Amino acid sequence: NMGNDASLTMDDIKTLSDPSVSQFTKQEISKLYKRFQQLDKSRRGFLTVDDMETMHELCLCPLWKYVLKEVLKDFKVDIDKRNEIKFKYFIRTLWILCDKSSADLKLETALKIFDEDDDGTLYASDLYKTLNILGLGIQQFSSKQLKEIVTNLIKDNAKENEESISFYDFLTIYGEQELLESMTIYLRLSKK
Predict the structure, then answer these.
(1) End-to-end C-alpha distance for the chain, whole angstroms
(2) In which element (H, E) is residue 85 found?
(3) Which of 47, 131, 152, 185 is an S-S bond match for 57, by CB 3.0 to 4.6 Å?
(4) Are 95 and 21 in contact (CB under 8 A)?
(5) Please, what's the largest Cα pairwise distance for the chain?
(6) Rounded to whole angstroms, how far apart are CA atoms 139 and 119?
(7) DSSP label at 159?
(8) Which strand (E) or helix (H) includes residue 166?
């Protein structure tokens, strides 16, 4: 049930350490369950985005809400239940973002976030959204400037007569390492 009940069963732990959810160890899952319970101040058995927002590791990660959104989509959570973040979704989100998960998993998730229509390419609207998510909007450029940047990105990198660039072109331009860093959090899970 993994709700508010103070302990996780072995079955819960098995489910949560399945690679489709995470590869955290049993100890790490237990630690994260304690964190989850601390964040669940009203003891409802789930967290809201506001609850998760209070995790300092996530404050440093501009992409975490987008990752959470993809996790909820992957687990086919109804739109009206998207602000009831159960422990499993919490674990999956933290796994994708944590420093132990693979670059491939992070990049695969980034592609889902940036490429709204799932066609493997980024159009101007995708790129505009992507640069905003990555924090290049507002702080550094006006929306007019950002639109120009996007137009030039496509002009300079798209194949002839195409209006989009591939995710890999984008990675080359933006920097794969930069992107991975913006999707990495360091959970303090070592033994105290």
Answers:
(1) 28
(2) none
(3) 185
(4) yes
(5) 59
(6) 30
(7) P
(8) strand 164-166
DSSP state of 3: S
Tell me what the pLDDT averaged over the chain comes to. 90
Please, are residues 183 and 62 in contact by the beta-carbon 8 Å criterion?
Answer: no
Which residue in the block uniquely carries the two structure tokens 């860093």?
181
Q: Summarize pLDDT for 88-126 with one digit per residue, the tens.
A: 999 999 999 999 999 999 999 999 999 988 888 999 999
Token pair 């989009």 in the structure block, residue:
164
Q: Which two three-digit tokens encode residue 148?
A: 């120009």
Residue in the structure block whose two tokens are 């592609």: 111
Q: What is the pTM of this model?
A: 0.89
> Residue 1 pLDDT > 60, yes or no?
no
Q: What is the dihedral of CA 93, 98, 102, 108, to 10 degrees?
A: 40
Cross-strand bridge partners of residue 164: 123
